[in-house]
Amino acid sequence: MTKKWLILPLLMFVFALGACNQDEGPESSGNETEEGLEPLEERTTVVVAEDGAASGAGFYIANEMGYFEDYNIEIEFATFGNSDEMLPAIASGEVDVAGGISTASFFNSIAQGIDVRMIADKGHNVEGSSYFTFVIREDLQDEITSYEDFKGRKIAVSSRNAVDDYIFGEMLKHAGLTRDDVEFVLMSDFGNMLAAMGNEQIDAALQIEPLITQGESQGLHVRFGDATDYAPEAQIAMVLGSPKFLGEKREVAKRFMAAYLKGVRDYNDAFIKETGDIDRVIEIMTEYTALKDPEVWKNVGVTGLDPNGQMFVEDIKNQYEVYNDNDAISGELDFDQAIDTSLVEEVLELIGEYE
């Protein structure tokens, strides 16, 4: 996943979104705003770097349901080719909000002076139905029945010193294996993993939705266990904020975060609690992402998004230490500055916690 920052969960798909203008944008939801979060007096544009990844669901739903409009906020979606372009844009305030994943290169950029803040959850695995987990070839089901059976097997992983490599390592520890016990196959394209399964070039892969579901339907692979068996609190992606947005534009940022969390809560009501308007949420997801089949959305393991915005902070730090142990980190990182949960905490005091 090197330099694939605007991911995840459907990491390989890119769907360029145009900016919504005031006249053509979504209508207000008609909801009353919370005391202390009245609509902004002047209409304000917030620039969000997002490429149609499923983990951006909170942005998409809040935009279409009118939650940003309630606060007089207009969202402008922007795309970047890679992190070398995106991270400086966030640090300078050209971009207000973006999504990123934990990688050694990400941590190195911050350590070397690019000032961006991790402010909220944007992707984790849901227990029992991880969207980012291991699969094995369908014909090996009788041979691989436990994690220990991965010994001697060819396992495809999309990157080194990134969150997928970290999850791979956690699986090996859980199995009582070392990296020398398996054959690590670096395969950056998740789609190529499907072909490699079909050609019997690999035995297992750390795969992602919707390709997990697609491979199962084609008889290429089957899910093997669940990533939460060994990495229950892996922080896969985070919402990033610019210092300017969190400081000078604090009142805008509070309203943005309130709207974002409302979108995430609609997402959780639909996919996790199964009490929300699943058809409307899927309609929005098919509009913004590359996965256009509503029926597939009902079967895939969806990205976990915390309705209170809370990240697994200790896991982020643990990932950093793993990359550091691999000699992939250059420079010290001040986590007290890089991880800023104050905006989420402030907003939760106003909108209440999700239960």
From TrEMBL:
Name of one Pfam family that matches: NMT1
Domain SsuA/THI5-like: 57-265
Cleavable signal peptide: 1-21
Compartments reported by the entry: Periplasm
Gene Ontology biological process: alkanesulfonate transmembrane transport
Key word Signal present: yes
Keywords attached to this entry: Signal
Keyword Methyltransferase: no
Xref: InterPro entries: SsuA/THI5
A single cellular component GO annotation: periplasmic space
Domain of life: Bacteria
Similarity-based family: Belongs to the bacterial solute-binding protein SsuA/TauA family.
Name of this protein: NitT/TauT family transport system substrate-binding protein
